[in-house]
């Protein structure tokens, strides 16, 4: 086997200078001419998503509070726990009266020996043959970071693939070390298990020589580990694609309770002779959190390589912290080095993991008692410290703000911080009052939905997670996000939105209720306060400016030198004060913009408040197709009729890409032409729009292309993104325009390509053509006046209904509930067609009225027509007599107002293909082409099986 150190290239300047990517490259703060510190431009970093939770917990004075945030073990009394063996080892160390000299750069020899033995077993050939480069480092985090620095230096260009989701700090660690990170699929919310197919496909698609970060055991945050057989297949892919596995072993002992059993994966890789890196931590299993004890090792194929790699690891560590701390390392060597203490540790390890398992059981029992119809088994199945609930960030916030349950925003609960007594509180209190009942629903409904059959699944899938939770909606984007990761520092707002701050201040309670109804993380109270501060600072600035002018005016005349000197002195004081105030004003303005831009639109009074299940059914059109045979799903039909080819899509582009072949390719064109025909007849201007659009236009349309869980692909080293929907280029088409009212409404319809990362997507509605990275769509977009928008919203819906009815589909029209509205939408009508393959309705279109939300960001205004001036009525058309007043000599000009915008799907091609294939299938396996499309199908009216091309002849 070629050793790693032969394969790696020498360090290059280029490698060192490559900026971190994977979304982590940040714009440098713009340096402002600063009066105070020269570092004025340094933005406040957000609190850490995990450790920040502990800080917030400490500040909470409630007696009910529970810290289920950080993965740190507590006793049944919820107290920190120091292991007995650790106490013993410390006593021995004290008795031995050891010194505090520097350790060698590579650390304490006995510690390093104990650590590799703990990982691979004392009889491991790799240890015996000296093939392991082991460097004692700073716990798991520091070890990962040294490993990442090594990769940046010696494997330039290699990206690190991390699981989606993963421990949040992985992204920071690799990005800060200059290693680009990418994600591989890992979690399937439908099965609440491993998306093994997705994982393997993504790893297979990774470029050769990439790094794969693997959680050794007890995956954080999902608690889902591969089986031994799956590890074997993962090893196969690593070998085939020459990937470098990088194990993160932070929870050895917590998955099964056995230190040995939990080392299965790295031991198996070592046995197969696969070279790998591994970061180990003793924070959790020896409870040495604050001692920072751990190691980075490279298990290699020969000793000579190991020596060279160790020399370079030392070189890196020397420049970072020089040499590691000794105390924790001595504890480890004492414990592992003594047979009796090692045995005792194993016992204590079992005890810790056993207590967490017992808590799982109690929590499971409590929930089962309360909701026996739900499948709570995921709580028992997940291993390690955590339970992954599927809660959205907004729901997590709610848990904390309302019920003092502290948890991370990815929906992770650290069960290591829970005890049996509090399980009841978390599930429901015996009194079952509304407070605790609410709590239970808050915590577990999202997760329970995953296991609650197709309907629940559909609901979970479409629950609008305000901050980009793991579950995203099917068509349409998540709303305005708060980045949930600590890796993103707040940036100066990229553009100015004309948010109606005064409205927010004057209606703060209504705005807050609206945010709650929409599961938005925005903070209207903060916006109101900032606005007040901004206004006050502005008034003070005006006052000072007047004082400055007055002062300089006073200096104009002839003055006694003394009086002049006094005025000069006064002027200086004013100038200084003014400079300070102006800087404050600019900072307040930026903050106000940032906070204001996060606010979602207000909500139409008829919109039902709640989750998707409370959406109102407005219409039911057609009837469910009944089949005298077992209907196939579109994937099967696509396969049998040689229409859809995911295999080639996977090979050429990657998972979730596809080729349409034969009649399916024609069907796409037919659907597009049919739709265009309809919308043009309805008065829409047909358009073809760019597929690449500036990031700023996305933002102005109410999307956050660089947020954590974004669905939007950014283009590296550019401020461009691939369109996720033609709504973006259409919205941008009238940016900064002032339109004459008589030209409104402007109706546009564009054929465009949609690109979606589908971050976090999984489940039944992610199979086949439901959720793909690229698809075609005809999108309608309208710019109009506020008076027109409600009626136009209805018209868009009627147009959709007319087309889908003509295509012979059975569907329901829903007035979507508040949780399901993206930030820009004031009201949204979705159409869901019956999909025989899934046995349920699936979304095929949505039509939103965004009122002035996007227009205030895109700066689309119109000028109302002045009412016809009555003879002699000079003030006509000058409302409130102020700005629009009649100018000297000219006609009266009404002040401009923000327009309203609407968008609606005319045809989302792949989902229409799904609906058509599944609903029009015949017993003989053929599919009839709907009447309305035949004109566009080159004379084909039935799609029949055909001979396929055999690629492996
Ligand atoms: N890897 C993983 C997967 C991990 O969860 C942690 C810590 C570490 C490495 C590093 O731990 P260290 O203490 O540096 O050895 N996780 C918990 C604490 C934290 O975020 O720092 C946690 O997820 O809560």
Automatic annotation (TrEMBL):
One of its GO terms (biological process) is seryl-tRNA aminoacylation. Residues 633-930 form the Aminoacyl-transfer RNA synthetases class-II family profile domain. Keywords: Aminoacyl-tRNA synthetase, Aminotransferase, ATP-binding, Coiled coil, Ligase, Nucleotide-binding, Protein biosynthesis, Pyridoxal phosphate, Transferase. Residues 564-598 form a coiled coil. Residues 1-45, 863-895 are annotated as: Disordered. Residues 7-36, 870-879 have a biased composition (Low complexity). It catalyses: L-aspartate + 2-oxoglutarate = oxaloacetate + L-glutamate. GO terms for cellular component: cytoplasm. Gene3D superfamilies: Aspartate Aminotransferase, domain 1, Bira Bifunctional Protein, Domain 2, Serine-tRNA synthetase, tRNA binding domain, Type I PLP-dependent aspartate aminotransferase-like (Major domain). Belongs to the class-I pyridoxal-phosphate-dependent aminotransferase family. Homodimer. This is Aspartate aminotransferase.
